[in-house]
Specification:
Blueprint (H helix, E strand, L loop, with lengths): L1 E3 L2 E3 L3 H16 L1 H10 L18 H9 L2 H4 L1
Antiparallel strand pairs: 1-2
Helix pairs in contact: 1-2
Length: 73
């Protein structure tokens, strides 16, 4: 989530849920946000630790850098 003045932005479904929970916590308190999270059973666990070049396997990073069209089409 990115915050600037009165605007909040996020990209993607999980990021949107994260943003909503963060805002709920700021507005109504952590307990309310935690109850909301429990109510929607939001417990993200990515299947791979490849969300950034720091954590992705080096061969995967190298392949994507060599040929970005593998993902970007």
């Amino acid at each position: 989530m990115r915050a600037s003045r009165c605007r909040r932005r996020s990209a993607g479904v999980s990021a949107g849920v994260d943003m909503a929970l963060t805002m709920a916590g700021r507005i109504a308190g952590d307990g309310v946000a935690q109850a909301l999270q429990l109510g929607i059973e939001y417990d993200p666990r990515p299947p791979y630790a490849a969300g950034s070049p720091r954590t992705a396997p080096a061969p995967v990073v190298a392949a994507l850098r060599a040929n970005p069209a593998l993902v970007l089409g």
